[in-house]
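Would you mind giving me a polypeptide sequence along with per-residue structure tokens?
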Amino acid sequence: MVTPLATSPTSPAIPSARREGGWRSWLDSPFQVDIGIDLGTANTLVYLRGHGIVMDEPSVVAVTRGSHTVLNDGAAVGLEAKKMLGKTSYSVDVIRPLREGVIANFPITEAMLRYFISRVKARRMFSQTRVVIAIPFGITHAEMKAVYNSTMRAGADKVHLIEETLAAGLGSGLRIDDPTANLVVDIGGGTTGISVISVADIAFGATVRCAGDHMTDAVSDFIRERYKLQIGQQTAEQLKIELGSALPQNEHAAMQIRGQGENGRPATIEVSADDVREALRAPLHKILRGIDWVLENTPPELSADLVDRGILVTGGGALLPRIDDLISDHTGLNVTVADDPLTCVARGAGAYLDTINWQRSS
């Protein structure tokens, strides 16, 4: 599904990075904690002003089944919770509270954010906490409000929203305030954001509800259908990381995996790089269709810029080998993978902290 550019007079304003007087900054204060958050479907990254990326954890929470009580005195969040996926008893639920870039479970999302924010604030518990949090482009007013309210209830004193692709461009080092257009493709866990950025704003864009998690699911489905073997999400993810590529490379690479066979008993098979690449073909095609849609609907004066500027790819999906070659072959444009693409959105949210007049936005 592609969500085109949509605006509503009732939607909460997502501020542009443009403002009077140029870029604004302020001195660090012991009474302020300024945080940028990439609240992702797969992972949550936290940027602390003055320190950079201080947290990168899976967006996963373990709770007592039938309640919202987080295990281990509220600490079964992130990597600790992800280790329990598929291995819990009847009394425990391991929950991923975001789905396709938006909040699917409000209480658990709040608990997760509260844990992350409290860890960052550990030594400054009485400080005012100001948060810039990244959201997918084109989500609804209700979805924006849900992110805002959940972040406030999790312990933030002030909250600002920024679109993920705008944050990704800023975090990658793009001159987003330049009038020349740039196309950013941010392949996250639950969604792929595709935006044409010009003069520090999104001129045109879309969100494709297909990204890294869908690739992992596609690998799991392929193994089940081709080899009649049930595998867990973590095994499928390992296959994607170890053997996956957008175009052929290391064709003789293979990996042995274990799972549950048709008879319900444990079984071992060998999976090839060709298998994984075939599994990834369908989700990658959906992302390419989204890029096509944006390119075909971008105003001509902006399209002309893209011939020179090309496409910047960010997010975890940018780590898939040869993803740049696939997109370049498909579009005919130059494609660049950002440095450290996983952290671009969080770093961009952190950089955006310096552009906000918090007194006017409060």
Q: What stands out?
A: The chain has three domains: 16-171+345-361, 178-211+280-339, 212-277. The chain is about 35% helix and 25% strand. Confidence is low (pLDDT under 50) at residues 1-28.
